[in-house]
Design a protein that fits this description.
Elements: E1 3-7, E2 10-13, E3 18-25, E4 33-39, E5 46-52, E6 57-60, E7 68-73, E8 78-83, E9 92-99, E10 110-113, E11 117-122
Parallel strand pairs: 2-11
Antiparallel strand pairs: 1-3, 3-8, 4-5, 4-9, 5-6, 7-8, 9-10, 9-11
Length: about 120
């Protein structure tokens, strides 16, 4: 059974940093294409960042470029999202997911999801 467990969320002031973790079990994450999404109250889930561990390529939403960095640790079977220069508009629940088929931009392309971790950025 594949499980993804996010952690690392919390309350931070604008300009601060957080590192989110996504620990996997039941599957070797380094064989996968994975993504981070976020969802604010009343809004649709949106793409933040993605990584192909096999090819070492990363992808970012425009809102994340230059501030967020996605990476993985094979030994720990864990995906990370380093978030710097946080803004109040980054406030959302953040989810990691394993992609199936389709574009990495869309939640419908992902087969497995974690339960999410809340990030709140105060102004």
């Amino acid at each position: 059974q594949v499980q993804l467990v996010e952690s690392g969320g919390g309350l931070v002031q604008a300009g601060g940093s957080l590192r989110l973790s996504c620990a996997g079990s039941g599957r070797t994450l380094s064989n996968d294409f994975m993504g981070w999404f976020r969802q604010a109250p009343g809004k649709e889930r949106e793409f933040v960042a993605a990584i192909s561990w096999i090819y070492g390529t990363t992808y970012y939403a425009d809102s994340a470029k230059g501030r967020f960095f996605i990476s993985g640790d094979n030994a720990k079977n864990t995906l990370y999202l380093q978030m710097n220069s946080l803004k109040p508009e980054d406030t959302a629940a953040y989810y990691c997911a394993i992609k199936g088929s389709g574009s990495y931009l869309y939640p419908s392309s992902y087969n497995y999801w974690g339960q999410g971790t809340q990030v709140t950025v105060s102004s």
